[in-house]
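Why do we care about 3D structure at all? Because function follows from shape, and shape follows, mostly, from sequence. That is the central idea of this module. The next example makes it concrete: a single protein chain, its amino acid sequence, and then its structure expressed as tokens.
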Amino acid sequence: MYASIFIAKLHSNAEKAKQVPHGMCLTLSDHDRLRIFIHEFCVRGLLPYVEKQIRTLNDQLMSRKGIHRSLFSATKKWFGGNKPTGQSHNLQNLNIVYSHESPELQVRRLADLCFMFQMYELAYQSYHTVKRDFNNDRAWPYYAGALEMAALSIFMQGQNAQRPYPYHYMETAVSTYMNAAKMPQFAARTTLLSTEILKHYSMYGDAAMHFIKMTNEDSDMRSALLLEQAAYCFIRMQKPMVRKYAFHMILAGHRFSKAGQRKHALRCYCHALQVYRGRHWSLAEDHINFTIGRQSFNLKQMENAANAFKHLLTNESLQTETQQAAFVREFLFVYKQLLAQPDQEGSSMLAQLPLPLIDSSTIMTLVGSHPVDAPGMAHALPNLLFLIVIALLSITSLSFLKYNKTI
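And the structure:
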């Protein structure tokens, strides 16, 4: 009890602190002093310290590197230390943890400092050097991270880069995180960085493939987001791939629905419907409209649900009689729910449903006390006609009763 009261007080104090503006009592001279202090701190304190750290690390590593490599490079070579990158993924992860003063982490620290202060070429050289050591030691998380940062260092150099962007670095990092290190979260992070770089180079097709490769059954939410981004990549290509965009948007909506995100699922299906509508892909359009109707009904959007189910009742439908009958029942149920809403009280509107076309040449009349079923008689009179008539009568009676109550 006391713990809950204490937590509630903490939350209330935090809310009050958010509402109180800060810095209102500072004068213009205070602003100038703060600006001067930040400038002096960066110029006289931070930057000289970082330069000293980079110089010290570089000198230490150069001196220790010669001794370390001369003593152990030969033994690593003879005992299988230098493994090619392509063969390293099927080896067992040794869960290596380096000490803080190890040469490998010192090189990584040097590379990170250079990257933070926009010395990207020196950062790339350091990452490129240390990734081979991590690969030799089979330290897969460190190896994948060095590959990832080396690729980012080349990308951040822009047009001043001395070498082309290494696309295969990111692919190797993703596969290492997934297969060897067993870190899917880091693989997803690397995929997001890699796809943003590919989109910067207008390589939307490759970016879409990277998104699709990362989809799996482990997380419906993550897979839905990746599939949606893949769909956007297909539509932004130089020659837009509209059908692939719609297909992957439907897949994303399905995974959003499995993850319980109904609003996002409805949004994805609505985007896909804009592509399939009017293309004479009636079965695909029926599936999308049916799913939109269900999702809208679950979100209490009765009018949208009724409109979606109404589009399923067409004369050009290729569905079977059983499926059409199911569509009519769904529409009737949703429409009754729509009329039962408070804002629809006293409304006498009726749904305008299409009547099925009847081919008079197929109508047969059999006379007799015990008529014999003729071949194809089961399909002579479509059951959909009677179901729609019953639906219209039910809706009319419901509206008539509501109208009488208002009088």
